[in-house]
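Because showing beats explaining, we think one record worth quoting, sequence and backbone structure tokens together, and here it is:
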Amino acid sequence: MSNLTLQARRRERLRYQLRQKSSGRPRLSVFRSGKHIYAQIIDDAQGVTLAAASSLDKELRAALKTGADKDAASAVGKLIAERSKVAGVIAVVFDRGSYLYHGRVKALAEAAREGGLDF
């Protein structure tokens, strides 16, 4: 099996478990690339994105040295928490995708919790 299929299986397994346990909460989805990190709050019932933030945002880009470290992930976590409050979302489920809860993904999650998101 290729690595891509294993990643896809891991992601689908996690999303199935989230659907079972979410009880109508929106999903905080994280995507991590080699150069940046992205976060979205998605309402799966309606199929819309309620809030989004990334290390590419103009206000963060100037303040960050690079978009690919824990500092950038923390900044994105704080920004997504602020934007979710504006959208009226406080409680979410955390979708780490196929990534381990470690490093940049963990830093983003902890910063979002500190910013007021409940998961």
